[in-house]
Amino acid sequence: MTRDELKDLACLGFSADLVMQSFCHTAAYPKPVDVNTHHTLPDFIMNRGGVSLRPGDGVIHSWLNRMLPDTVGTGGDSHTRFPIGISFPAGSGLVAFAAATGVMPLDMPESVLVRFKGKMQPGITLRDLVHAIPLYAIKQGLLTVEKKGKKNIFSGRILEIEGLPDLKVEQAFELTDASAERSAAGCTIKLNKEPIIEYLNSNIVLLKWMIAEGYGDRRTLERRIQGMEKWLANPELLEADADAEYAAVIDIDLADIKEPILCAPNDPDDARPLSAVQGEKIDEVFIGSCMTNIGHFRAAGKLLDAHKGQLPTRLWAAPPTRMDAAQLTEEGYYSVFGKSGLVSRSRLFLCMGNRRVWQTARRWFPPRPVTSRTVWGLARMSSGFCGTGCCCGADWQTTDAGRVPDLRGAGG
Question: Domain spanning 2-106+214-220: which CATH class is it, in words?
Answer without folding.
Answer: alpha beta
